[in-house]
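Usage example:
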Amino acid sequence: MAKTPSDDEVRARLDAVAYGLAVTPGFRIADLDAASTPSFDAGRTEGEKLLARMGERMSDLQERLYAHGRTGGNRSVLLVLQGLDTAGKGGIARHVLGLVDPQGVSLKAFGRPTPEELEHDFLWRIRKALPPAGRIGLFDRSHYEDILVPHAAGTADADELTARFDAIEQFERELVAGGTTIVKVALWVSRDEQYARLRERLERPDKHWKYSPNDVDVRLARPAYEAAYDEVLARSSYDIAPWYVVPADRKWFARLATSALLLRALLDLGLGWPEPTFDVTTELARLDATR
Amino acid sequence: MAKTPSDDEVRARLDAVAYGLAVTPGFRIADLDAASTPSFDAGRTEGEKLLARMGERMSDLQERLYAHGRTGGNRSVLLVLQGLDTAGKGGIARHVLGLVDPQGVSLKAFGRPTPEELEHDFLWRIRKALPPAGRIGLFDRSHYEDILVPHAAGTADADELTARFDAIEQFERELVAGGTTIVKVALWVSRDEQYARLRERLERPDKHWKYSPNDVDVRLARPAYEAAYDEVLARSSYDIAPWYVVPADRKWFARLATSALLLRALLDLGLGWPEPTFDVTTELARLDATR
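Running the assembly step on the lines above writes:
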């Protein structure tokens, strides 16, 4: 049996993963090898074993986070997931957040805005869905759709896009100041893998519900989306909330890499167990009197 | 390897479990053997194996339910969990709902009502937390607290309690008519087991956050709560939403029994995969043109 690595060793390894996924200046998403597995060359079987081990650690840290949230702490973690159709956002929700207690998780999938949502600023529905203190939140799509979609469709001019970038940065700085750690992940699949996954949704009756004719329209607009992602990654990767790009043709790797980023964020909170808010000796005596 | 049982065999077995947990006329909760394991005499190891197998089945049925919710279906399942402190409600949320995709689950824990909630009818906050179509909802405590607490404290007269029972029955009938299956479970621990669990929360620093001095106050009022539960179980067990009482001194059994009740509800929905809302041949051709 392998020796359990120390926290410092785990942390160094997670830093290496994060470094390998970080957005670098001049990055173009069309150049990414979506089948690559940066910082991890041990293959799928080892990857799945490692994911299970990381899950145990995440589960322990998630409980500490939850405990702090229940006793007045303000920390939370928000995982922002972006990606084209079939990139595997739902699989991350299921297989990564499925590793921890569902009570400590707050999931929100953003679709096309409703008429009520359109009557408000674009961040209104986002603010309403923020994870409460003590939770790990997951946004399946997010406020970045409000840049990606008009950018790709060409329906917003440069000033409007700049205003949205500014609003988002201010919003994220406010969240971080309030105790939220933001982990932004763009999952990226190749054209070929996207084709194969859409084809499977059309071929299998148990997958039909996941398909929408709009998926093909968006696929046809893929170059415009690539340009939109490039701009988002370049303009909204900053110290307090950088973007990570996760190659997602191999589902096991996308889950492993995203888990690594999440585990790193949880470790960084440095949470022990909260101090009791009552006198333990007194309460032991009160309890024993009821025996 | 054991032969996979047919749906009819599974259903017959689940019916037997439900029958063994159903509330019978004249039932008194103080008479329940909380360490018993009705309809299941194979022990913990077998119980845990069976739970894992049921989890796979639940997971498949949950995905069908979710698929229907995404394509216009109105069905949902609501698990209402009641029980005294330490009865294991959180463990059910974690270990039973943890068996299925977190995206398909909607969890709500009800605490003491907030000032805003108190300005509304007692069902206002309950309605706001109902699971959307396609989801499995879990209420950790529920509208039944609005009978149990005043009943145990003696702060509501008979007419008020009757009015609440009537409002609840009308509300539940409305939910069922709208497509929701309601599964009501009261988890019950013995006095001794409750003592041991509270003692553990006081002895272990990683459990302190789960303890509240109020837990001892409620323990002292246990006979009043027993009477309140007896009245709730007798007066709100009706055809469309009966109560089940799950002996919960053995955590593995409480999880197994609650899972069985939930699986039975999911099987009863009889859901296949939804029909496509588009023409498959047309879409295959459109997709192939993008290859």
